[in-house]
Amino acid sequence: MILQPETDDLAAYLVADGVIDHQDRQLRRLAAELATPEAAFQYVRDEVRHSADAGDYSGAFRASEVLAAGNAICHGKAHLLAALLRAQGVPTGLCYQRLTDGEGDFVLHALNAVHLNGRWARLDARGNREGVDARYDLERERLAWPVRPELGECDYPGIFATPPAALVRVLAEAVPGRAGYGYLPGELPVDGGSTGRLRA
Q1: Which of 4, 112, 130, 175 is 20 to 30 A from 120 in CA distance terms?
Q2: What is the CATH number of the domain that holds 68?
């Protein structure tokens, strides 16, 4: 798959906004302490638990809130990694996959793309567990979930500088403490609209 940035202007992938809020003081301090992109990746992957693995759904999706909560679903973790890397001066975007959830539905998974060594590479800091072994590898993708096209799963090729507005509205509906992904879309929302759940 050929990755498709929204823009060739790498400055767009360094911006702080209301979701990737790397102007936050604690976040910037942590980014400086971690110092390298690989250390930032490992921190988000290993130290910020995936909500499903932790059994604790914070509902956090803004980068600074994810850092404070210590757990989030993949979207929040991708926003935090983008914020840490942007604070380190590394152009970082958001990527998405449509995956099956094991119950007959599709769910939208978030990960990152980083621009290093003159090219884009995808990284997935979802968090490892049995059957999941995502790694920091700029040469060969080591993602949490390889897609299975025969099940209708897909990689979206776009690299987003900001999460789609319709997706942000959905993420804001998360209820802390309520387990599950029922509120997430089953495919990438179109700007200005929303997509509901899809059957696999």
Answers
A1: 130
A2: 3.10.620.30
